[in-house]
């Protein structure tokens, strides 16, 4: 998508989220030794990181606003920013959402409920071992995944089925030959707290700040429960794209979000019935189904 938009004349800036391979620098904390570095979720990325990035880009390019395209948690981060730092709405000409995750109103698949039920014990075990970084990019892990999932491997069908269990089934649009390329950079790491926060909003259905428990919430927020993100503050012009085969960000979720936003300009279904959460990146026909129509949309707001 970045190359397509660049060819269409757009100046592209691609973000590296905090905690990923290219975003681990800190003025005094070492992410390999200091657990404090990993004390963040997508909340901090929306409140602190994204505003700094936007200001950097606008100052350097001498522009007053920009287009922001957020995919999945990237869209979540955008909504955190616009709701908690509402002055930044004026700096976004158009906020494009690909499969956004905010309030979850759809019924979760049984597989999700099973994972969510055991996740607290999993977190407790990791914290007991002082593990606060999740899924870092490691050459050995990448090599193993490439070996297991490459063409000719008897495990490839299990690799594909495992991914579809999480994102939705779409055999036609996913090319398994991509596996060796995907596992060169994916997964790329984040904090355990980010995963906790993400699962929190999906399992409870409520788009709100990180839940520290009743006692912790009283200390952090002065209330028993964490505050909800106020989506009425997201006043930037917004478009939302969803896939009918997506089981993470569904049509119902996106419709609910569109009704909450004061300036939703469009809710667009990808014109392919099985389009899933992963297809926004890797679908064989993603250019025709999504990227070319996106260019047309952006051109309207130039």
From TrEMBL:
The keyword Transport does not apply. The keyword Hydrolase applies. Keywords: Glycoprotein, Hydrolase, Lipid degradation, Lipid metabolism, Signal. Residues 3-279 form the AB hydrolase-1 domain. One of its GO terms (molecular function) is hydrolase activity. One of its GO terms (biological process) is lipid catabolic process. InterPro entries: AB_hydrolase_1, AB_hydrolase_fold. Pfam families: Abhydrolase_1. Gene3D superfamilies: alpha/beta hydrolase. It comes from the Eukaryota. Belongs to the AB hydrolase superfamily. Lipase family. This is Alpha/beta hydrolase fold.
